[in-house]
Amino acid sequence: MLIPKTHPRAASLYIREKLVHGFRDGLAVEEGLLAHGRGEMFDYLIGEKTTKTARKAIKAAARTLLTAKSPVISVNGNVASLCPKEIVELSKITGAKIEVNLFYASEKRKKTIAQTLKKNGAKEILGIDSRFSKRITKLDSARRIVDKRGIFSADVVLVPLEDGDRTIALKKFGKNVITFDLNPMSRTAQTADITIVDNITRGIHLLIDTCKKLSKEELEEKPKFDNKKNLKKSILIIRKNLRRMANA
Ligand code: PTJ
């Protein structure tokens, strides 16, 4: 599809096309298209830009990833469709392992996602070899199967575009959870330790840059981040935008 650069919503339409291609290439599932639609709606409500509150969460996420002992980035079909290159770059900068972990699991899709990540420069992808499978408790979906070298033994897990049950289970399992979620009211957003309310396709670039730029002093500082307070601010941004639209 040809999208004119001058189209007022060109950026958003390009992102949508990426997901459609990801779906056609066997990375994302149909349900992922629906999840993307929900994301688009919230992106519209936050103004389709990275807010100050998202920047604050990104800084906290960068610090947490860089100071983690064993960080892991969990990748699903949507994430693999939208930003595989950036996921690999983030993993290289932070030393985080990459693990494929799917809600609608299939061996074929896991392999397709792993291949895509490798094409984008990843050396090792976890979550593919069943010899290393372990179960995390209190979770019914296929996502309970994790890699013992990855999510199972991680201290910090980045789980972007996630469903609520998984985030709750990871928290109960003692993990420090970071997420990208455009819906500040979702269970994932509300349960995670650090929620970046931004489109992953925008926010991940800033997360990579922030990881590159954080100074030694900033890394040593005691973290002051309050996720609940930050989420309230994101909800207020949405309320303000809705009010402005209603009064226009
Ligand atoms: O590939 P699989 O099998 O693991 O399935 C993945 C999906 C996405 C289908 C699954 O995790 C799912 O159903 O997720 P949910 O419960 O719809 O949650 C996805 C959340 O991500 C929603 O709150 C969306 O608003 C949000 N979201 C969608 N697109 C983006 C986003 N947040 C940030 N950036 C986006 N581009």
Account of the 3D structure:
The protein is an alpha/beta fold and 248 residues long. It has one domain: Rossmann fold (3-Layer(aba) Sandwich). The chain is 53% helix and 11% strand. The chain contains eleven helices and eight strands. 41% of the residues are buried. The mean pLDDT is 94. The structure holds ligand PTJ. Ligand PTJ binds next to helix 2, helix 4 and helix 9.
Condensed summary:
With 248 residues, the chain is α/β, with parallel strands linked by helices. The protein has helices at residues 10-24, 30-46, 52-67, 77-82, 84-94, 107-119, 164-172, 187-191, 200-213, 216-220, 227-247, and strands at residues 71-75, 97-100, 125-126, 133-135, 145-147, 156-158, 176-180, 194-196.
Number of domains: 1
Number of strands: 8
* Largest sheet entry: 6 strands, parallel
Strand content: 5-15%
- How many helices? The count is 11
State the end-to-end distance.
Answer: 32 Å
Point out poorly predicted stretches. Answer: none
Name every ligand kind in the structure: ligand PTJ
Can you write the helix and strand succession as a string? HHHEHHEHEEEEHEHEHHH
**What would CATH call the homologous superfamily?**
Phosphopantoate/pantothenate synthetase
Structural class assignment: alpha/beta
Helix content: 40-55%
- Top CATH class: Alpha Beta
List the helices and strands and how they pair.
Elements: H1 10-24, H2 30-46, H3 52-67, E1 71-75, H4 77-82, H5 84-94, E2 97-100, H6 107-119, E3 125-126, E4 133-135, E5 145-147, E6 156-158, H7 164-172, E7 176-180, H8 187-191, E8 194-196, H9 200-213, H10 216-220, H11 227-247
Parallel strand pairs: 1-2, 1-6, 2-3, 6-7, 7-8
Antiparallel strand pairs: 4-5
Helix pairs in contact: 1-2, 3-9, 3-11, 5-9
Bound molecules: ligand PTJ.
